[in-house]
């Protein structure tokens, strides 16, 4: 891949399902395949059948779109090399070993879940204390409230750690989940 490939351009290139399948296939197959074989395997994925069960029309549709459009676009971006004369595709020599994307936590969802969990836990603890159930019923109210406060403080601490953490995810893993 070219060193200067913009992340938005990369995502645009890999936004097409057939291009993602081709890229994934090449990464799994040590980087080189005949276009005919790649087309058969991609048609199998698309149609949910074994590669041996792909019919001529299914394979030909994939082959034509790869040959006429997708391989050229991926080759120009440096993701693959496409030898049109030999009908062979291979991974581009300049691509990094592993493309990574940074995933930031969803602060709004995380906060809602933490507050919801705190509310449920508080209701259970206070309900158990109010009903005099074992363990909780024998505690004075101040001990129950202190326990709830410590739980809330721990939840806030965990929330703040999660919000400051950036998670690295391989682009290939993220894209494969899109196609699952």
UniProtKB/TrEMBL annotation:
Residues 12-89 form the DUF7344 domain. It holds the Pfam family DUF7344. InterPro entries: DUF7344 (IPR055768). The chain crosses the membrane at residues 114-136, 142-162. This is DUF7344 domain-containing protein. It comes from Halorubrum tibetense. Keywords: Membrane, Transmembrane, Transmembrane helix.
